[in-house]
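Here's a chain:
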Amino acid sequence: MDTPVLDLTFDAEAMLPGLRQWVECESPTFAAAAVARMMDLAGRDLALLGARIETIPGRMGYGPCLRATFPHPDGGRVPGVLVMGHLDTVHPVGTLAALPWRREGNRVFGPGIFDMKGGNFIAVEAIRQMIRAGVATRRPLTVLFTSDEEVGSPSTRDLIEAEAARHAVVLVPEPARPDGGVVTGRYAIARFNLRTVGKPSHAGARLADGRSAIREMCRQVVAIEAMTTDAATYSVGVIQGGQWVNCVATYCDAESLSMAKRQQDLDEAVERMLALRPTGNDVQLIVTRGVTRPVWEPDERVMALYGVARGIANRIGFDITHQSSGGGSDGNFTGAMGVPTLDGLGVGGAGAHTLEEHLVIDSLVPRARLLAGLLQVV
């Protein structure tokens, strides 16, 4: 690195006001208009840096996506580097009342700040500081922000894969691992939609005549989660059933997730889920396969990319480990395609998806510097 990109003047305190705007723009996956507002906010920040902004309309009821392309002498002639992240969160609109932006010592709290607005923001900050210092990226640079990662990317997988196919490298600023390491592989994940169908009756006058869909689903939940082994996990995270307390429930719906380190194990988990049967002849069970994230296993090009990142980190003054990780990411798709992908480049913190979600302020500058170093040389 001939230009002292690692000496760029990153300032954590200067980053926080801009990051606060992002965090306080609530953007849960299922609120398409809220996600659109967040995309507009990020798009404006990127446009101010000279990027060409494209808003890609959402589909399937989800919000739009954002693609930002930066000018480069080799643009359109050589494959570039793609910085990819999601701006949707799991926190519904109104979470700021329970999880307001607040600073406690070295931590800042807020919905989506750790997963993954903090990482996306420092990626934009890295680009901002490089442009300000006149430091060029080696390859043409594109930023893609998507809108439905938290529900498995059902409406954006094709967009993600098409964009990745045009690039040589994908960098994903998802949260750093607990030890500050990065991600060089992801486990396979499958989602399922379940419905039980019972027989209605008046719960007060004719209880014995009914067959409760809720009770059947409860039995299925216990059986499903009992299938968990070291090879594959099974969990149920959503249940909705019944309409009136004085009616035996006719329908009950649930969502289940299975995760495995190997694709073969996930395939077997899928077979087991689809083979589930009702516990009796007087109730029904319907299992439908939902979205799937393929296993991403590191190859020599991914490990070479990690080696570059580790060398940059060492020059900054810290070390980074690498690991394959559970918890899905859009890196599953790009890594499984064979496009060299490095994930987990975002901020340090904890409490993702909870009311204790926070980032560590001291992680902002070194992680932004790491991203800038990668953008200069990969």
